[in-house]
From TrEMBL, chain A:
InterPro entries: MetI-like, MetI-like_sf, Phosphate_PstC, Phosphate_Transport_Permease
Gene that produces this protein: pstC
Family matches, as CDD domains: TM_PBP2
Role noted for this protein: Part of the binding-protein-dependent transport system for phosphate; probably responsible for the translocation of the substrate across the membrane.
Annotated organism of origin: Shewanella corallii
Entry similarity comment: Belongs to the binding-protein-dependent transport system permease family. CysTW subfamily.
Location relative to the cell: Cell inner membrane; Cell membrane
Protein name per Swiss-Prot or TrEMBL: Phosphate transport system permease protein
Membrane topology: Multi-pass membrane protein
Keywords assigned: Cell inner membrane, Cell membrane, Membrane, Phosphate transport, Transmembrane, Transmembrane helix, Transport
TrEMBL record, chain C:
Keywords assigned: Cell membrane, Membrane, Transmembrane, Transmembrane helix, Transport
Designated name of the protein: Phosphate transport system permease protein PstA
NCBIfam families xref list: 3a0107s02c
PROSITE patterns reported for this sequence: ABC_TM1
Domain ABC transmembrane type-1: 68-274
Subcellular location: Cell inner membrane; Cell membrane
Membrane topology: Multi-pass membrane protein
Location, primary (coarse class): membrane
Organism: Shewanella corallii
Length: 306, 252, 286
């Protein structure tokens, strides 16, 4: 065996290959660091500018009609009255209905995918749910308009099927993917040892799911529900297409109504002056609801961290 | 001596037959004694334990042939798995209390069988906690979360939870491996008391523990049951060279 | 005494299981119903002429070519603005900023808040700021700038996840060789995170195509091929909305079905692409 020797002539003396350009390199590093930082600031700036403009533009309406005149007013008759209570009621009613119908279905589907379905079936349903999430809201609106609206008209024998109920049904389907995806993830995050322990005690798989796994995934499921609520509250086009959009206080879920979002979308392109400002005020009210939801989320996450 | 559990020519394969993990195991487990399963990690001792209450059913692609009987009855034929697991309770390597109160942890298994009567539940909770030597430590905080207990207390809670179901057999999968010596001692003492009423099968990584608490010991190596005997005999005069090597600490 | 499964318990179990199957069937059923109804009515009317023709509201031509072009412009412009900003933000957050520093918290809070704002609010803002204050008018550019803020949080979050998934050992190895930070990022970390970044962009494309309310408030509804980014344009979703407001003749119904069909096919294509990237990525890593 040959003794291991290093051919020293092949190794260059130190400092002969690398160029001595430390200062230029520092300059370059600094430049990119600042560039990336500036990019990161744009998101912050956007939020600030959005908040500033929406707030600023809503001031004339609040000044003229008063906060209570807008928030508790029941008549929307621009340019005289700017009451949006009917819209608040419509938004809340359609959202609550959507949650009441959609969340149970979504939760059961999440349980199915995470715990019950054989692997091959779960692998088919998961992409199906993603597809449901990807369908544009105008397509949901279109579907609601041609299927659900006539159905309601016929079943309940009302003059027009464009009603709060139609909005609830369409929104219920639209929140499914959000609630399913988040709930499924949190069900999967429950430690396997819980399930093992429960089955080892002779508890049935169903008892284990409903009494142990679902409660253990509670905060994650709640997060999914809140995201679903936010989606329902913020939805615009599908709602415009199926809910009739009458700016009056709905007497029942079989009457047409206009949500906060619909109010903005329908009138913004032609409104001016205080009327336009009142639509910004509508946006502010919508944002307040969204902020309350986000606050709940923050609280939930803090609870989870504990 | 009556055999509680009897294992005959048991073979187990993981991954739809790809991995032959237990090779023709024959083992009798006498009633009301502590049987220890020992051997280096990966030898199949935990796998065998999980055959006894069919926890291996949960793993996809597991295939089993051979015979396992409990009270002369084949546990893989015409048996309701839930009823089997009530009769054959299990305590896991890491204490796994559920995210609920101490009381609800103990009552969980009964409630799963549809027991709702408050008086019955109260009685069983107290009796089980007493049997697990935990009652005095927790009687004032039954409604507080089980996660507030120390590691050793959590493990005794899991034992109490199992006892609540009034099983015949308790399987223990390295129940003290995550505990400090003091907590371990308490569990070992508890096992000595419990064996008067229950048949106990314990997997342990510690030969000292096997010697301290078990009546019989079975030594496993790479999926084979090398030797099983009265604990004292197995440790003092092992019949097989491999057993001698292991108990002398040559490997493992 | 021993406890075994009571009859009542067994019935409850069966009922619970039936309920779970029912819930899942409802979800899949809704999807199939929507897909079947729209595709069965629309596929017959999607042909080359429909895709390549112009559109006039009085009915001489009833294709969707201008809407396709407008949608493509909208996608390119929005991604062109949002992708560089989003990717650079993610690089700053993962590679430069101290984790947990005040600045990072502020940036995170703001992007999360942006993600939670309903899209109609973006429309409202775009109409005021880009269309009005900046004087860009109803144009593809106004729409694209509005949408770029809307998709920014998606790009930032997904890119961040992709960057964080790059093993720390890569960075250590590169810095250990004395490689400069920017070199490490552009030559090593970004290429490793590329599948994730591409996925985030494809997801954003889906979001842009699907949006409608903030689009017609900022880009208008003119149904002709925009001559430049400063010209108004009507995207496919806005077109479907306009069509549904005037469903009188069978011909108009067919157009609506066909447009909805095209939108669904686009969503299918986008979902398939993300799946393909994900599966190739997984194969490469493991």
């Amino acid at each position: 065996m040959q003794s291991a020797s290093i051919d020293t002539t092949a190794v260059p003396a130190t400092g002969t290959i690398l160029p001595q350009s430390g200062r230029r390199r520092d300059w370059k590093e600094q430049f990119f660091k600042i560039l990336f930082l500036l990019a990161a600031i744009i998101g912050v700036l956007s939020l600030a500018v959005i908040a500033y403009f929406i707030f600023q533009e809503s001031l004339p309406a609040f000044a003229e009609a008063g906060v209570s005149g807008i928030v508790t007013g029941t008549e929307w008759l621009p340019p005289a009255l700017y009451g949006i209570l009917p819209m608040i009621v419509a938004s809340l009613a359609s959202t609550i209905g959507a949650v009441a119908i959609g969340v149970p279905v979504a939760l059961l589907t999440a349980i199915f995918i995470a715990e019950v379905a054989p692997k091959w079936l779960a692998n088919i349903i998961r992409p199906a749910v993603e597809l449901l999430a990807g369908i544009p809201s105008v397509v949901y609106g279109f579907f609601g308009l041609i299927i659900i609206v006539p159905m309601i008209q016929e079943w309940f024998n009302v003059p027009a099927g464009n009603t709060v109920l139609a909005g609830m049904l369409v929104l219920a389907v639209m929140i499914l993917p959000t609630v399913i995806a988040v709930s499924e993830t949190s069900l999967r995050a429950v430690p396997k040892t819980y399930k093992e322990g429960s089955l080892a005690l002779g508890a049935s798989p169903m008892f284990t799911i409903f009494k142990l796994l679902v409660p253990a995934a509670r905060s994650g499921i709640l997060t999914g529900v809140i995201l679903g609520i936010a989606r329902a509250l913020g939805e615009t086009m599908a709602i415009i297409m199926v809910m009739g959009n009458a700016p009056a206080m709905p007497g029942s879920i079989l009457e047409p109504a206009r949500t906060l979002t619909a109010n903005i979308a329908l009138e913004m392109s032609y409104a001016s002056g205080v009327h336009a400002s009142a639509l910004y005020a509508t946006g502010i009210v919508l944002l307040v609801f969204i902020m309350m939801l986000n606050g709940t989320l923050l609280y939930l996450n803090r609870e989870k961290a504990k | 001596m009556m055999n509680k559990i009897s294992i005959k020519d048991l073979n187990l394969y993981y991954g739809n037959g790809a991995n032959h993990a237990l090779h023709g195991i024959n083992l009798d487990i006498p009633a009301r004694q502590v049987t220890a399963l020992i051997g280096p990690s990966g030898c199949g001792k935990s796998t065998l334990l999980r055959c006894l209450n069919r926890m291996n059913d949960l793993i996809e692609g597991v295939k089993i042939d051979g015979l396992v009987t409990l009270d002369e009855q084949d546990i893989y034929q015409n048996v309701d798995v839930a009823s089997l697991r009530i009769k054959v309770g299990m305590v896991f390597q890491k204490a796994n209390p559920f995210p609920m109160s101490i009381y609800d942890n103990i009552a969980y298994g009964l409630r799963a069988q549809g027991v709702t009567d408050k008086k019955t539940l109260n009685e069983v909770v107290e009796r089980s906690l007493r049997s697990a030597a935990l009652w005095d430590e927790v009687k004032d905080r039954l409604k507080s979360p089980a996660f507030g207990l120390s590691g050793g207390q959590q493990q005794r809670l899991c034992i109490a939870r199992t006892i609540a179901m009034e099983p015949d057999v308790i399987l223990m999968d390295e129940p003290t491996s995550a505990l400090d010596p003091i907590a371990t001692k308490k569990i070992e003492d508890l096992i000595q008391t419990l064996k008067q009423k229950y048949t106990i099968v314990i997997v342990t990584h510690s030969m000292q523990q096997a010697r301290r608490i078990s009546d019989r010991t079975a030594f496993f190596l790479m999926g084979d049951l090398v030797e099983h005997n009265n604990t004292n005999i197995l440790f003092s005069t092992p019949a097989d060279d491999r057993t001698r090597g292991y108990v002398n600490g040559d490997f493992g | 005494m021993s406890y075994t499964l009571t009859r009542a318990r067994k019935i409850q179990d069966t009922a619970a299981k039936a309920l779970i199957w029912l819930g899942a069937s409802l979800t899949v059923g809704f999807l199939l119903w929507i897909l079947w109804y729209i595709l069965s009515n629309g596929l017959a009317h999607v042909n080359w002429e429909f895709v390549s023709s112009d559109y006039t509201s009085i009915g001489e031509a009833s294709g969707i070519w201008p809407m396709i072009v407008s949608t493509i412009y909208m996608v390119l412009a929005s991604i062109g603005v949002a992708a560089p900003i989003g990717i650079m933000t993610a690089i700053y957050l993962t590679e430069y900023a101290k984790p947990g520093s005040k600045l990072v918290k502020v940036i995170r809070f703001c992007t999360e808040s942006l993600a939670g704002i309903p899209s109609i609010i973006f429309g409202l803002f775009g109409l005021t700021f880009f269309v009005g204050v900046l004087g860009l008018g109803f144009s593809v550019l106004s729409g694209a700038l509005t949408l770029s803020i809307l998709i920014l949080p998606v790009i930032i979050r997904t890119t961040e996840e992709a960057l964080m998934a790059v093993p720390q050992s890569y960075r250590e190895g590169s810095y250990g060789l004395g490689a400069p930070k920017i070199y490490t990022i552009t030559r090593l970390i970004l290429p490793s995170a590329m599948p994730g970044i591409v996925t985030s962009i494809v997801l954003s494309i889906g979001r842009i195509i699907g949006e409608s309310a903030p689009v017609f408030l900022t880009a208008g509804m003119v149904a002709r091929i925009p001559e430049s980014l400063m010209d108004s344009g009507r995207t496919l979703t806005v077109h479907l909305y306009k069509l549904t407001q005037e469903l009188y003749t069978i011909h108009e119904w067919n157009q609506a079905y066909a447009t909805a069909t095209v939108l669904i096919v686009v969503v299918l294509v986008i979902n398939t692409i993300t799946k393909l990237i994900a599966s190739r990525f997984n194969k490469a890593t493991y």
